[in-house]
Amino acid sequence: MLLCRRSLAKSSWMSSARSLGRRHYGVPPVVGASDPRLDKTVQVTSSKGVNIIHDPLLSKGTAFSLAERERLAIRGLVPPRCQEMDKQLLRVKRNLDDCRTPLAKFVFLSALQDRNETLFYRLLINHLEELAGIIYTPTVGLACLRSHSIYRRSRGMYFSTQDRGAMSAMVYNWPHDEVDVIVVTDGSRVLGLGDLGANGMQIPIGKLSLYVAAGGIRPRSVLPVVLDVGTNNESLLNDPLYMGMGHPRVEGEDYYSFVDEWVTAVKSRWPNALIQFEDFKYPHAYNLLNKYRNKVTCFNDDIQSTSSITLAGILAGLKARGKKQEDLNQERIICVGAGSAGVGVCEGIIDCMVAQGRVRSRDEAYSRIWMMDQHGLLGNPALSAEDAAQQTVARKGERTQLDERQQCYVKADLPDRLTLEEVVERVKPTAILGLTGIRGVFSEKAIRTMAKYEEKPIVFPLSNPDTHAECTAEEAFAWTEGRAIFASGSPFENVNLPNGKIGRTNQCNNSYSFPGLGLGITVSRANEVTPTMFLETARVIADMASPAQLKQGTLFPGVANLRDVALAVGTRVCEVAYEEGVATAKLKEGELLSEVVKNSMFQPEYVPLVHHSYH
Ligand SMILES: NC(=O)c1ccc[n+]([C@@H]2O[C@H](COP(=O)([O-])OP(=O)(O)OC[C@H]3O[C@@H](n4cnc5c(N)ncnc54)[C@H](O)[C@@H]3O)[C@@H](O)[C@H]2O)c1
Ligand SMILES: O=C(O)C[C@H](O)C(=O)O
Ligand SMILES: [Mg+2]
């Protein structure tokens, strides 16, 4: 396992893009909230008695020592025997295993998180592979669909259309002064499930649980947020249990000024917090990113961290084929889905080709990519003029106007709206990426044709949850005679192949990239999130699998290793922040960044509690 111990600036293909020596060591000592120098051996609280037992950040359940029970006035309020965490873990794991369905497990784990976060995170870290699929994708998707039925207790903050003018005051309702990471959604495109309005809250909660478990951000420093601007989901609007605003989505200038009020409010209370935009529909996702990327420390997960992990998957896939990462410009890549994630992923691939210096221009890099939406290839309407009318009828519906960004991907030399099968036949792709949210978009014919021309086709159905993947792992291996290099957004089991071998599956999800990005950004207190951070994240992850793993088709370390991945990514991102002069945290001379990052990572352990009244 690669654990980053490199000194600054060792990247092979990024060095030309860097300007070294711009490190800011002279800025005021803004010490990160997750900085090890703030670590304490005791935790001081002004709470006492039941307030401690009912505070998930302080509660230890049955694990309070007798001395603590005495000094915190909780003697007699919990069962008499002091049980350490190992016994508690046994109990909660047994209870969890008794839950019959993934959704029941989700409800159980949420309740545990609401009672005792230390125990919740220890359980989660100990069983990351098993539980990531519950608190995160794919089960979190089901939890969003049912959120208004399974609701027990509030977590995070909601800002709705009835809060216009009040947001700057509302942010002070949050009980913590230190907030390092905020994940915010407007619930307009939740995974591949569409508009789920305020039910989308489960997504920021799940993302932030991984920020803590994998990225080592402290539980008290994370804030999940929903911006409730209404929903266009009729079934939610008509459901008496739905808890969000009961009107259609606010759009246009009203929408952008609403988000602006929220950003201003958040930055006024927590100027250093990283904002992660999550599951905003296209084009809002891009418009918000463009508006805020140079003003506040923020990124869009679906556009940018997805591009990191997908690029990492392709680069590792090249190595699995016995090629070099620098051969990326030889690939022919079809990206099905031209929305936030699709465009973001393609831009990441292009950035990488340009950074590698193996293409002369971005245009040349574009020439290796073919982008498609539900109407087919983004091609040249002039070339398909003859049968355009016919096609419009046959394929139902007009393509909505392509925006400037999507326009970049239009192929001038190919007819607009070619089907996937037609594009595959003409282009002979080496890789196909699915970012549509639509099950079954990778047809058998298309994948079989691809496998005719490419010995080891890269097949990445990246849409979530699993029920919305463009194809299953079984299909991908069956249609390629077991030769596919396979990665999906949601987890799929390995596949037993007819020849007795195993078709290895990989999970290519931004959960591999955002925890480390957030870790590096918060430790360095970066005041800007730069493109290099995403490229380097990809490079670090692409280098993590061993040659033997790559040979078998394993591209990344398993989900159980997400913490190691976050540490490696976090260290590199932190280095980049100093190299590019965007870090504001003071670094002591001689401090090894990898150690600073590692020591800053939250460990779920019970710390002695001490009562102190500040009045
Ligand atoms: N694996 C990951 O880490 C990851 C990250 C981000 C997004 N995603 C997934 O990607 C999907 C899309 O997300 P997004 O933010 O880009 O959404 P989006 O709504 O912005 O884009 C979806 C795109 O798919 C196109 N599309 C719809 N139906 C199609 C069809 N039948 N054939 C071809 N194209 C079709 C749309 O025109 C649009 O361009 C979601 O399911 C999401 O879960 C996965
Ligand atoms: O949430 C995920 O699992 C990945 C991604 O952010 C998505 O929207 O699908
Ligand atoms: Mg997302």
List the helices and strands and how they pair.
Blueprint: E1 43-45, H1 50-53, H2 66-71, H3 85-98, H4 102-115, H5 117-126, H6 128-135, H7 139-145, H8 147-150, E2 157-160, H9 167-170, E3 181-185, H10 202-213, E4 222-228, H11 234-237, H12 252-269, E5 274-277, H13 284-292, E6 298-300, H14 301-320, E7 333-336, H15 340-356, H16 362-366, E8 369-373, E9 376-377, E10 379-380, H17 385-395, H18 404-407, E11 411-415, H19 420-427, E12 431-434, H20 444-453, E13 458-461, H21 473-479, E14 485-488, E15 495-496, E16 502-503, E17 505-507, H22 514-524, H23 531-542, H24 547-552, H25 562-579, H26 593-600, E18 609-611
Parallel strand pairs: 1-18, 2-4, 3-4, 3-5, 5-6, 7-8, 7-12, 10-11, 12-13, 13-14, 14-17
Antiparallel strand pairs: 8-9, 15-16
Bound molecules: nicotinamide-adenine-dinucleotide (NAD), (2S)-2-hydroxybutanedioic acid (LMR) and magnesium ion.
The site of (2S)-2-hydroxybutanedioic acid has 9 residues, from helix 14.
Task: Quickly list its features.
binds nicotinamide-adenine-dinucleotide, 41% helix, binds (2S)-2-hydroxybutanedioic acid, 18 strands, binds magnesium ion, Rossmann fold, 7-stranded mixed β-sheet, disordered N terminus, alpha/beta, 615 residues
